[in-house]
Design goal:
This protein is an alpha/beta fold. The chain is built from 13 helices and 17 strands.
């Protein structure tokens, strides 16, 4: 009898320990939009905060932390996604440009979580060409996907198909993609909320990617509102001759497909920018309204199912985006609007509500940080670092970076004629080298370009309007930044 009682007691203790262990390992919800500029999240307090408040996104910030200096390592969609998945720069994971995909054999943080006992899923925009790996479940858009009545490809749909992943016959879901993706995400969480294992869900919206197709219910939103313009929208690019190469990124090159109407004629450059900006921004912000509404649905599900306390929820975008700044839309460069990603994180058990932090973090840090929360050691192949302690109490780990390294590879892009570049960003300075070569990367095209440099002093010139690279007063700063730049290039083993 004593042996039986002892066995029962031992079994109960083991069960209790199991429950405690599972409770200690948080669920993870990673929500990412496409091209969502932080200027369009009211928690960041930009010129758009009163025009279109985002109360649900703000709730994550108010109940957690708002990171103010999160930087993308390659400001274009597929490379950023590859970096987030692998914790590696483009030259390590092989996703240099939009024409590259993430090889299924590559290690990634979802695979590490799987090995660590997590249920994993990705729903929405994948955009890495090959079949997602590391996920127990996926249901993703082929390529860019479409806004209205989207097609999603699931693991079940893929069975028996060996051709290109994005050509796999999927299923059509009725509705706007933001609504559809959220419904699919909630349904998956609902099916796994009582599992013994914690879950990690990546919920990726297509919105607000060009060409900004919003849900019908937002058709009249902001209809009679004048959208405030950025201070530098009428930038004349003085001292930045290379910007003449970028004119297809400017507002005056919006086309009828973007504007969804006939374009006016005989307008000056600045008159057209003013006209295009108002129409572009209203379409863009209507897409944001749908995102905020659907993030609210996810938060409500967590609340109603008792999951909020033990769930880490992250909101970000795959990079920043120009919202008329410098007269541009799109991304790709190192100006703050393109470089800086929104990053909001809530975890009630560890992150104090209402905090902000200006530490430099990069998207290669996301994977190690999430593994840290899951109690899984960072694998050697990852180049990023965990910033969990920064989220918890603002304390930077020993040796934390004081500068970040950036590289954009897609020279001569057919749509925007962008110039390949790399650079370094500190809290005050930004130094960029426009080297202008294809280096035989996919999706690049020969485009003659004379290499040049650019330096911004963001303390004196927060709008990044004045290139001071050739200013004699900055020559010592240039020398120091170049030395640091090449040190980082070597540190990250970027040898091209």
């Amino acid at each position: 009898m004593n042996k039986v009682l002892t066995l029962v007691a031992t079994s109960l203790t083991a069960l209790q320990l199991h429950v405690v262990a599972q409770e200690a390992r948080p669920n993870i919800i990673y929500i990412m939009s496409d091209d969502h500029a932080l200027q369009a999240i009211s928690a960041y307090g930009s010129r758009l905060a009163k025009v279109l408040p985002t109360p649900n996104l703000d709730r994550i910030a108010n109940e957690g932390i708002r990171m103010d200096n999160c930087c993308v390592t390659n400001s274009i969609s597929a490379p950023s996604r590859g970096c987030i998945m692998t914790g590696q720069y483009s030259h390590k994971n092989g996703v240099y440009t939009l024409d590259d995909g993430l090889a299924p054999s590559r290690n990634n943080f979802a695979k590490e979580l799987q090995k660590g006992g997590y249920q994993t899923a990705i729903i929405g925009k994948w955009h890495l060409k090959h079949e997602p790996t590391g996920f127990d479940y996926y249901n993703v858009l082929p390529g860019q996907g479409r806004y209205k009545n989207p097609i999603l490809i699931s693991k079940e749909d893929r069975k028996g198909h060996t051709g290109p992943f994005d050509k796999t016959p999927g299923k059509v879901y009725q509705g706007h993609s933001t609504d559809v993706i959220t419904t699919q995400a909630i349904d998956w969480m609902d099916a796994h909320k009582n599992d013994d294992h914690p879950f990690m869900l990546m919920c990726h919206f297509k919105a607000p990617h060009r060409a900004w197709e919003y849900a019908d219910r937002f058709a009249d939103l902001l209809k009679d509102v004048e959208i405030p313009e950025p201070e530098n929208m009428y930038d004349m690019y003085d001292g930045r001759a290379h910007y003449t190469e970028l004119q297809t990124m400017s507002l005056e090159h919006m086309d009828e497909k973007d504007m969804k109407c006939e374009l006016p004629t005989n307008l000056s450059r600045d008159e057209f920018r003013k006209w295009a900006y108002q129409r572009y921004m209203k379409q863009y912000l209507r897409c944001i309204a749908g995102i905020d509404e659907n993030v609210g649905r996810i938060l409500k599900f967590l609340d109603e199912n008792g999951l909020a306390q033990n769930t880490i929820i992250i909101y970000t975008s795959d990079q920043g985006f120009y919202l008329g700044e410098h007269g541009w839309f799109d991304k790709r460069y190192m100006q703050k609007e393109s470089l800086n990603m929104p990053l909001l994180v809530r975890y009630p058990k560890e992150i104090k509500p209402g905090n902000t932090n200006n530490s430099i973090v990069i998207n290669a840090d996301f994977a190690p940080t999430l593994l840290d929360y899951a109690g899984i050691a960072k694998p050697d192949y990852m180049q990023g670092e965990s910033f969990r302690s920064i989220l918890k109490n603002g304390k930077k780990p020993n040796g934390w970076r004081d500068a970040m390294y950036y590289r954009y590879w897609m020279h001569g892009d057919r749509h925007h004629h962008t110039v390949a570049n790399y650079g370094i960003c500190t809290e005050r300075y930004k130094l960029t080298y426009y080297y202008g070569e294809t280096l035989n990367k996919k999706g690049t095209h020969e485009m003659p370009y004379t290499p040049d440099w650019e330096l911004f002093d963001m303390k004196r010139d927060p709008q990044e309007m004045k290139n001071v690279y050739n200013d004699k007063r900055y020559q010592k700063v240039v020398a120091q930044l170049k030395e640091k730049l090449y040190q980082l290039k070597e540190y990250y083993q970027d040898n091209e």
